[in-house]
Amino acid sequence: MKKICIVICLVVIANIGFSQIKVFSLNDTTVQVKKNSLIYYLPQTFVSVNVDVKTKQFIPGPFCKYAEKYLSIEDVKVKSFKTSDIIKVELNEYNVVDPKAGFFVTGNIPKILLDNRGLISSYNNTDQKQSNKNQSIYENYPEYFDDNEVYFTDYSVKRNFTGITDTTYKVIELDSVFQKIPVYNTVITSKDFEQKAEEAANYIIKIRKRRFKLQSAQFENEKPPKKVEFLVNELNELEKQYLELFIGKEVAIINSFHYTFKPAQGQTKDRLVLFHLSDENGISDKQGPDTEPVYLNYSNCGLVDNLQGFYSRQLKLKDKTKGLYYRIPGQGLFSVEFDKSILLQKHLTIPQYGLINYLPVKMFKNKNLQIIFDVENGSIVRICNE
Question: Distance between CA atoms of 326 and 101, rounded to whole angstroms?
C-alpha cells in the first residue's frame, strides 16, 4: 500500500513539474488563457539597400577661348556636361518583431527573459544580456546643381576699368595765325574679356616664376624663409584657381538612395527596380531615354526545404501541449545589378525564409534547464543545465 502511495505522489509531482509551462500561439483564437501570461515574439528580417550616387558637373572656364592663345593649352572643353556614377553599395539586414509569430506563455513565467522589443532572449538564465539593437533611421535629402550659382569669382588681381585716351583738335588764332592744338580726353571704360584673360594668364606666369625661385633657393635675403613647403603649396593652390578660369573645373554632389525590403516567406526568386540612373539627374524614379535601371535581385536559398518536410512528418508524433517556439532561419541571396553587372552580392540570414518549430514541453520538467536564444533571428544558441 505504501508503494502505491509513493507512486501516486511521484506521478502528481511529475504532473506539477510538467505543467510549469504552456505555450499557445496568439493566432489560436480557440485558446482561453485564465492565468497570468507572458507574451513573447520571434523576429523577422528586413533588408536595407543603400546606394550612393556621385553626380559631377563640368563647368568650362570663362576664358576657355583664350587658353591656347595665352597659355598654349590645347583642346580645352568649352561645353558644360554632367556625369553620374554609383560609388557605394550596401546590403544589410535588421530585425524587427514579427507580429504573426507571437505566443502566450503560462506557468513559470519569471524564467523567461525578453529584450526591449518583446523578443525572447533566454529561458532560466537571468545573466543573459538583453539586446537593444534598434533600426537605423535613413533620411534622404536630394541635392541638385543650381544653374544660377556662380562658380568663378576671381577673374583678375587688377582693377576692372581702364582709361582710353581720345585725341581731338581745336583751332585757335595766335597773332593773326590759325593753329591746330590737340585736346586729350580720357574715358574710363570696363575691360573686355580678352584683356582680363591676358591679365590672368600673366598672373599665372608670375606665380610660376615665384614658385620656381622658392624651389631653386633664389631668395631675396641670404636667410631662407620659414615654411618654404607651405609657401609652395599655397602658390600651387593659387595657380590651380586661376588655371580653372581657362581649363574649367568640376564640382560634385553625392546623393544617397535608401530602400527597405521585407522578404516574404513564400517568395523564391524575383527582382525589382530600385531606381533609374541618369547622367543629368543622378537618382530618378522615372524611366527615360537616357536612364539605366538599377535592380535588386533576391532569392531564397532553400536552406530548410528538407527540414520542412521532416518536421511536417513529425507533427503526428508530437504532443499536443507545446513548449517554447523558436525559429530555424533560412538564408537569402541578394544582389544589386546595374548595366548587366553585379555591383554587390551578399548572403543574408532571413528568419522568415525558414520555419517555426517548438521544443517538447517535457524538457521543461528539468528545473536546471537553460535555453539561450539568438534575439536577432529567433534560433536556439544553446541548451544546457545550470
Answer: 9
Burial of 90 (0-12, 13-18, 19+ CB in 10 A): middle
Question: Could you give the CA distance from residue 296 to residue 302 in angstroms, rounded to a whole number?
Answer: 19
Tens of pLDDT along the chain (386 residues) come to 444 444 444 444 444 444 468 888 888 877 777 667 889 999 999 999 999 999 999 999 999 999 999 999 999 999 999 999 999 999 999 999 999 999 988 876 768 899 999 999 999 886 655 555 545 445 565 677 776 566 777 777 777 776 666 677 777 777 677 777 776 677 677 778 888 899 999 999 999 999 998 888 887 776 777 788 898 999 999 999 999 999 999 999 999 999 998 998 777 788 999 999 999 888 988 888 889 999 999 999 888 877 766 666 555 555 667 889 999 999 999 999 999 999 999 999 999 998 898 888 888 888 888 999 999 999 999 998 87
The whole-model pTM stands at 0.74
Alpha-carbon distance of 350 to 259, in angstroms, equals: 17
